[in-house]
Structures are given as C-alpha cells and as structure tokens.
Write a structure and sequence with these properties.
With about 190 residues, the chain is mainly alpha-helical. Among the domains are: about 40 residues; about 80 residues, Orthogonal Bundle (Arc Repressor Mutant, subunit A), CATH 1.10.10. The chain is about 65% helix and about 5% strand. It has a three-stranded antiparallel sheet. A hairpin with a 6-residue loop joins strand 2 and strand 3.
Length: about 190
Amino acid sequence: MKTAKDKTAMVGPTPERKVLGHRPWHLGLTPHEVLITEFEWSVIRFQQAFERYILQIAHIAGLGELSYAELVLLHVIGFADGPITLGLLARQLNADNVTNIQYGLRKLVGYQLVGKSRGAKGNVHSYHITDHGRACVEQYAHFRRQGLIGQTNAIRAIDQRLADSAQLIGMLTGVYDEAMRISATFGSPP
C-alpha cells in the first residue's frame, strides 16, 4: 500500500513557500504553473460569462429556445460563404463529438433557421442559413452592437489587445491539443 509520503515522491516535493502569493497546491508548485492555472481559471470564468451573455442576447433576439451550443453552430453556419458540411463545421468548432453537432443541426433545421441539402454525391449533406435564420442572427447582431460593442470600446487599446489575445488563445489551443495527444502515452497511477 502506498503512503502519502510515497505519493509525494511520485509527483515531486511540495515547496513550503508561497508562489506568487499563492499557497502551494497541486496545480501551482512553480510560478509558471501558477500563471498557467490563473489563465485557465480566467478562461473558465470567461466562458461561463460568455455563455450567459450569448443566451441573454439570443433570448432578446427571439432565439431563446436554442442552447448555447446551437447558437454557436447557427453563427458558424451564418458566417460561412455558402453551404457547409458537418465535417467542416466540426473542424471550424474544433469539436470531436459530431453526434452533438448533428443533434444541434436537426434542431436548427426544425426551427427553420438552417436548411439542409444533399450534395452531388448524395451521401453528404450541407447546411446553410435560411432567410428566417439570417433575420434572427441580424437581430442578434443588432443587440450585440447596442450592448457589448459600446462597453468594449471603452477599454484602452482594445483592438490590439483583442488581436493579441486571439492569437495567444489560438496558439494555446494547439498546445493543449498536442499536450492531450502526448498524454495518451502516460500510464495510469499504480
């Protein structure tokens, strides 16, 4: 049977000093780990606020029956240059669970926000935004401009900060995806 001391030896010693004002804990043993963890928690908090915001604006715009995932899907289809396939949607969203995307697409088609057409080969379907869907996302964009854009314009150097943040998050998406692939070779604890 492993003791607590043996478990500590497996993951390394826990420093007794505070790291960047934090007490030592499993996700923050070094200053770099603390900063990564602070970033991750801020992303989680941002995602929660973003989801609440999207649902609120959607409700005002007449899309209140849709879930967060369905709204994101609708916007991706809406900014596509033309019909888009399930595979392209999954790649655009960096999603690996196509079953959830298919479910969302069925709902969007049912609400007549999105249309579905069969491709030339017959077994591949494409999705496009309908006129009704376009009107709804335009209404959403109107309310977004009224509330969000005015708020963000008040932040100093916001455009450059947003560009830098988007680039950083894009690069970190690749790092996290690669770290996930590498972790597949890790063994389970004994």
